[in-house]
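A quick aside before the break. I want you to see a complete sequence-to-structure record at least once, exactly as it would be stored in a machine-readable document. Don't worry about memorizing anything.
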Amino acid sequence: MNPEHIRNFSIVAHVDHGKSTLADRLLERTGTIPERMMRDQVLDRMDLERERGITIKMQPVRMNYTLGSVNYVLNLIDTPGHIDFSYEVSRALHAVEGVLLLVDSTQGIQAQTLTTLAMAEAQGCTIIPVLSKIDSPAARVEEVKDELAELLHVSPEEVLAVSGKSGAGVAELLEAIVKNVPPPKSASTTSEPRGLIFDFSYSKHRGVVVYLRVFDGTFKKGQSLGFAAAGKEFIALEVGVFAPEERPADSLSAGEIGYIVTGIKEAGVVAVGDTIGMAHGSLPALAGYERVRPVVWASVYPESQDDLPILRQSLERLRLSDSSLSFEEESSGVLGRGFRCGFLGLLHLEIITERLKREFGLSLIVTIPTISYVVTKTNGIRETIYTPAKFPEHGDIVKIEEPWAKVIIITPPDSVSVLIQMLYDHEANTLGTETYHDGRIEMTVEMPLRELMRGFFDKLKSVSSGYASLSYEILPEREADVVRLDVLVAEESVPAFARVVARRRVQEEAEKMVEKLHSLLPKQLFVTKIQAKSGGRIIASKSLSAMRKDVTGYLYGGDVSRKMKLLQKQKRGKKKMLERGTGKVNIPEEVFMKMVQSSAE
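That is the input. The structure line, written in tokens, reads:
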């Protein structure tokens, strides 16, 4: 196909600004999907996406559009809006020449708007500003138009206005895409095929199906191909395009977006951002590829150890369609065996665990998410620690480093005073502030990633009544003032309860954990000490009184000294259990679940 008649573009926006609804109207207007088959969020394939109203998995689609007498092919990539998936969005933007920057006219510019705009500008994409939800009673069309025009340094007349609900303005938007988005250009003059993988899926019968943008040459069925980073070779079983269902084609040429069926059924081989080309080709890999690094870690255990093999298979299946998921097996005493998993963020963790429950019918125990720390020991060894239980003793540590985050917050002015106190509580440093036309405040801060993951987003939504928004990017590690906090039951450490906390909050956290465990743990036959230990000393303690077994219940009448003798014998027995260390506490599974589950925070 003539590349001059191809337009590749993406829609980027803050969460819930109407990307999927606008995509529905584009598909409807171009006749890509018959009217009888149309439904809301047609590109969102997962039930989870439709329930939450958010895009989790990006979806490409090919549309045919006629302007004048010329037939054009419009390739749209609908991307996730959440910050957790920013790397996938950046790779999708590398596969297109144009971007529709969508802003909700009822909400205005949000934090994620600025992040996605920066990514689009970094990739050199042509940006078309678009306002959505213009027919809403709460719409501030002219005001938000001025905001967006000022942000992009264009005139307000260049900002298009559409309604995803009624379809108003969609015809003008399609014309603007054809006129403003440049046609794709080949990266080289060679006929050898080369393309960028921006996403992939998994089919039980066909293996991994890669979604790619072709930059050079032509891909055809039966070619011997390979991945530049993974080094894996395969035969192309099928090539095709998205209409929006997968539709086989004779070939995929430079400038087109489509898919290739690889037949590969191994997890971890295919990755977003990798280059696909001839098995022994001469072209170098496309620039910009990097392995996605997990941001947060959490342990996932099956409620029944009989389900461990099913959990392992389920995680492997999910990794076939999500290369950013990483996991390794671990063991944790009473909780048994499970997996330490790495996620891109808290939403990614929530989605994966929900899919494990829904798609594979698993009942899970998910621990409180943590981040990774770089620890320098006294022997000079630097080690990356992913779990608090493996944190070295305080005397063996020279320095601890932790990742930080640069956070952009946009909030209504009446929430600022409460927000400033919240930022102090979460160890944040304010870098700068800016006031918008409508009075909203943009704050740029830096804070430890550990504090961002400590319920910061939920608290932000709470103090702003849901109106504030944030986006963040990960910064390099900095020295951290944190300590390991252990919980001891009957003077025996319980690794599953260990956590890493800020030194300034260690006393507060210790008392909270001891109090919580004291309220959950059933009484034992002897007095049970519940203690919190940090830095080699006990900093919080509480005793759980002994369960009094009625050893005199079978007696009746007679001298009271018989009862006293039995009670004294019972007392000596309890004392002996403590002295000899034979008194063991069996912590019930439900207590572990309530203590370690993330919902317990």
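Two observations worth writing down. The chain has five domains: 3-180, 194-278, 296-366, 374-479, 483-600. The domain at 296-366 is CATH 3.30.70.870 (Alpha-Beta Plaits). We'll return to this after the break.
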